[in-house]
Amino acid sequence: MELNGRPADPEAVKTLALTNYGHFTTMRVDDQRVRGLSLHLARLARDCRAVFDADLDTGRVRAYVRRAATGQHGSLVVRVSVFDPALDMGRPSSTATPHILVTTRPGGPLPTPPMRVKTVRHVRDTAAVKHLGLFGALHARRAAQLDGYDDALFHGPDGLVTEGVTWNVGFITADDTIVWPKGDVLPGVTMALLQEHHEHTTAPVTLEQAHGMRAAFATNTSIGVRAVSAIDATALQTEHPTLTAMRDAYLSRPGETL
Asked: Rounded distance, CA 103 to CA 172, Å?
């Protein structure tokens, strides 16, 4: 754990626990390369402007990530969190000085096994920003797991499916069309990479339509493309050829060098 390229002082990072105001991105590093690195950096810059009304030096971020990954072989997951240790909860409108916290953990093997998800009514705050406020989403995940599922799939009060707890969701229809739900969702990096290379459509998806899909999948940097084996009590295909092609294409995609 390093803050601005140096070992992090616990006193400096306590704001993350006490105030929890900031944003982040998580990237998977495989042998010093990152799929969608430029998109991760662009997200950090965009969200820093939205959260702190401040510019972020993405070249410095890249250097910090490179430093964290140096000497580590294989796969690891790097999280870059941007926050201001001096933030006053009573005056969050004060001019901010964003700091960059980099943490690492081992990356798991890909592909990941299929998962069962439970639909839950939930809308994340400021959905387009990958912010630190995860309580509502994690509470939904916990409730779904206590009910015997692996994770939760969100829908809004209008009954339209949006996204998962920490992942985007996509569907494959009866005519093999890839559909991404239209709505207030986090614009995921893995989703964007897949959309670059696979024909798709973006459209509203109701709960009824989701249950009637031929296949469904979750995407994020840590899991790549993960099949959804069931939505609520409805079983879905996990070895659909379109899904397999997407997963294989993503895994074979070369990353950008740090």
From this structure: 35
Q: What tokens does 17 get?
A: 């626990």
Give the contacts of 93 (CB within 8 A, at least 6 positions apart): none
pLDDT tens profile 110-142 = 999 999 999 999 999 999 999 999 999 999 999
DSSP string for residues in 149-176? -SEEEEE-TTSBEEEESSSEEEEE-TT-
Tens-digit pLDDT profile for residues 184-242 = 999 999 999 999 989 999 999 999 999 999 999 999 999 999 999 999 999 999 999 99
Give me the torsion for CA of 152, 158, 159, 162, rounded to 10°.
-40
Q: The pTM is what?
A: 0.95
How many other C-beta atoms can be found within 10 angstroms of the C-beta atom of residue 149? 20
Asked if the model's pLDDT at residue 72 lies above 90, the reply is no
Single out the residue of 168, 230, 166, 213 nearest to residue 193, CA to CA. Answer: 168
Within 1-74, strands assigned E span 2-3, 6-7, 22-30, 33-34
Closest listed residue to residue 178, CA positions, set 217, 222, 208: 217
Which helix (H) or strand (E) segment is 240 a member of?
none
Helix (H, G, I), strand (E, B) or coil at 256: strand
